[in-house]
Amino acid sequence: MSEIKISREETDKVVSRIKVYFKEELDQEIGSFEAEFLIDFFAKEIGPYFYNRGIFDAQALFADRAQELDYMIQELEKPTV
After folding, report:
1. I need a labelling partner for 20 at 20 to 30 A (CA). Which of 5, 10, 31, 71 fits?
2. Smallest Cα–Cα separation from 15: which of 30, 46, 36?
3. How far apart are CA 39 and CA 11, in angstroms?
């Protein structure tokens, strides 16, 4: 799996949310530099768990849709003598 890259705009949005969270929930100030390091840490250490869960959910969705497709194809069968 390759490293996940997010745009500068996305990073800035997440940094802003982290800073607000720290201020409102923890009553602490955190700088943008520190927030970006926190993002990197979570992406590297915790991100794979969320990624793997997304893969699992996608596989389950695919299996459900494949089963539905199988039923639809069976309905196309013509009776034989």
Report:
1. 5
2. 36
3. 8
